[in-house]
Amino acid sequence: MVNQSKVKKLDVETITFDEISRWKFDFQHYFKNTPVVFKGAAVNWTAFKKWQPEYFKDVYGDRSFRVAYNHQGVFNYCEDCDTGAVESLDKPMHEIVDLISKENSTYYLKQCNMKRDFPELLQDIDPPKILRRLKEILVINFWFGGGGCKSPLHFDRADNFFVQLLGKKRVTLFPPSAGKYLYPSEDKKRPHISRVNIFAPDEDMYPLLKDAKKEKIVVELEPGDVLYIPSLWWHGVESLGTSISVNIWWAGSVSIALFRFRMFMRSLFTRRAA
User: Which CATH number does the domain housing residue 71 bear?
Assistant: First the structure.
């Protein structure tokens, strides 16, 4: 049975993995570039059952990791953002867990490449079965942060399965068509990030935002939920308490083949020019 939760003028479909085949997902969401929530899809993961803050203390103890901090909790690295600088601090895991676990903490172990930073944890996750054919996982990232942490409004070029494992997160989404109203950064290194602090928007400074409202979607993820965020969809993510998540960036085989072909042709012309 499909349950639909309406937010603004757009719908986010909420289903379970048992209700959708790989082909149905492709035709209803992947090819149409529309998000969907898979309710409770990760509740059988080993990570869901054992990833608690104290677990990371036990496993990593004094091992040092780089944790990010921002006084407003908005981790925007663009030069033209107005939420302040993001600090990076090297601290032992037991201290990081204590910092993150404080109420409304704005310390964040963010976008940690699991293959590089937490390879021993990869065995605890079970990527969605609809990725097992004609699709390729690019990167799996680990996120562990306090209740005051927010990822700024941005888009990714890869498709994304965002998996909530501990705590809740609120995700604000806009389709690619709304990008012209969202004030992309003029920072040449980060044009995929909005200048707008979507968690406290200033509509006087950014008057076009009112035109994006009719396309806005807000999704609240509970532990075990998986959100499909299609390629190029704008999204800002807000923790509603101490939170642990992973996100899986992936691409269809055709997209991978085209990308590799473009890289090959670019390298070929570069060699010829040299």
Answer: 2.60.120.650
